[in-house]
Amino acid sequence: MAEVNKVEVPAKYDLNAKWDACLDLGVRRFVYSSFAGAFTGLLLFRSPVTRWASVAFGAGIGIGSAYSDCSQKFNGSRSNLSPKFLKAAEE
């Protein structure tokens, strides 16, 4: 049998791995922050509307933080600071 030469894609360019990692991160953060919002809503609020608002707020925080991390994975590490400030921070 002839061996098939597989070309390994560097992790930097492997989109399948990045999508898998981002979906996993997004689902986990959504669920964990929703549970945290539900727990906080049960502790602090009496009204069902405010409890559901607490769950929605937690879910939004989870999705937002997952989006932020995934955008950094796809676009590379970016900073809003100018190179002058980045150089000073490294020293």
Automatic annotation (TrEMBL):
<comment type="similarity">
    <text>Belongs to the MICOS complex subunit Mic10 family.</text>
</comment>
<keyword id="KW-0812">Transmembrane</keyword>
<keyword id="KW-0496">Mitochondrion</keyword>
<comment type="function">
    <text>Component of the MICOS complex, a large protein complex of the mitochondrial inner membrane that plays crucial roles in the maintenance of crista junctions, inner membrane architecture, and formation of contact sites to the outer membrane.</text>
</comment>
<protein>
    <submittedName>
        <fullName>Uncharacterized protein</fullName>
    </submittedName>
</protein>
<dbReference type="InterPro" id="IPR007512">
    <property type="entry name" value="Mic10"/>
</dbReference>
<dbReference type="Pfam" id="PF04418">
    <property type="entry name" value="DUF543"/>
</dbReference>
<keyword id="KW-1133">Transmembrane helix</keyword>
<keyword id="KW-0472">Membrane</keyword>
<dbReference type="GO" id="GO:0005743">
    <property type="term" value="C:mitochondrial inner membrane"/>
</dbReference>
<keyword id="KW-0999">Mitochondrion inner membrane</keyword>
